[in-house]
């Protein structure tokens, strides 16, 4: 069974019939362990599609099956619980808490997530910061870290609960080329070592070149799929 299955997805914002359709009949299967780059011009609906496949937003029409669960049937609290257990998120602007140091940015979400006690959360946080190369900088706040270092903290946070799927919205979009390449190396490594599925919206030619699969959205539909 695929990790993610989208069937006949349409998305139109608002209720007005005249509103533009952002997504139109999207059909997509993403297997466990894939490293998928989702491309397309700005405004083509990449973020919308990521939000729909992760159950943050609902399609106007169509089915979403995430980790063998039909999301259409789930209540908001069950969607939230599914996300907090099995999904990790990485963003373009890192979305770290500025008042917390690197350790606490990883540790607190893990404890608040409710599935780990303080001891387990501490061990996992230290382990994840170590695996992104930031063990020595764990006492620093985001403002005392470079962009690449902040994204490493965000990656540690996204992975600390060992999610099956990581959803990343332009994770290298706010980094210079060399820093972006290092972040890409890290994500590819994690994918290869752990088998975690990655779905990544991106404009980066490096990321597209090295992704296992490239899918492009254009005019609301899937214009290209390297797996087809
Ligand atoms: P991308 O991530 O490819 O840049 P988005 O998914 O962010 O594209 O946006 C696709 C289209 O949907 C854009 O035209 C955008 O203005 C519109 N859109 C996105 N979110 C909303 C929203 N919450 N309400 C209304 N329109 C939206
Ligand atoms: P030592 O190297 O002396 O064994 P560490 O510096 O690795 O100790 O950390 C000791 C404990 O302190 C860790 O197990 C962890 O629980 C906690 N800890 C470490 N860094 C932080 C931090 N930035 N914020 C909160 N707790 C931390």
From TrEMBL:
It holds the Pfam family ABC_tran. InterPro entries: AAA+_ATPase, ABC_transporter-like_ATP-bd, ABC_transporter-like_CS, ABC_transpr_LolD-like, MacB-like_ATP-bd, P-loop_NTPase. The keyword Phosphoprotein does not apply. Residues 4-227 form the ABC transporter domain. SMART domains: AAA. Gene3D superfamilies: P-loop containing nucleotide triphosphate hydrolases. One of its GO terms (molecular function) is transmembrane transporter activity. The keyword Transport applies. CDD domains: ABC_MJ0796_LolCDE_FtsE. Keywords: ATP-binding, Nucleotide-binding, Transport. GO terms for cellular component: plasma membrane; transmembrane transporter complex. Belongs to the ABC transporter superfamily. Macrolide exporter (TC 3.A.1.122) family. This is ABC transporter ATP-binding protein. It comes from Silvania hatchlandensis.
């Amino acid at each position: 069974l695929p990790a993610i299955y989208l069937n006949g997805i349409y998305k139109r914002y608002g209720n007005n019939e005249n509103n533009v359709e952002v997504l139109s009949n999207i059909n997509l299967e993403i297997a466990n362990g894939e490293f998928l780059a989702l491309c397309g011009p700005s405004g083509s609906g990449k973020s919308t599609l990521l939000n729909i496949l992760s159950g943050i937003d609902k399609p106007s029409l169509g089915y979403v099956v995430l980790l063998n669960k039909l999301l259409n049937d789930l209540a908001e609290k069950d969607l939230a619980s599914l996300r907090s257990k099995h999904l990790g998120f990485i963003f373009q602007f890192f979305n770290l808490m500025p008042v917390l140091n690197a350790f606490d940015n990883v540790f607190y979400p893990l404890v608040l997530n409710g599935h780990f006690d303080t001891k387990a959360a501490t061990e996992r946080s230290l382990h994840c910061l170590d695996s992104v190369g930031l063990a020595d900088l764990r006492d620093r706040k985001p403002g005392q870290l470079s962009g690449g270092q902040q994204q490493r903290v965000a990656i540690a946070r996204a992975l600390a609960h060992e999610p099956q799927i990581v959803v990343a919205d332009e994770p290298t979009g706010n980094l210079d080329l060399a820093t972006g390449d290092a972040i890409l190396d890290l994500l590819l490594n994690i994918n290869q070592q752990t088998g975690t599925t990655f779905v990544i919206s991106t404009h980066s030619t490096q990321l597209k070149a090295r992704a296992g699969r490239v899918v492009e959205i254009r005019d609301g539909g899937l214009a290209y799929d390297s797996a087809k």
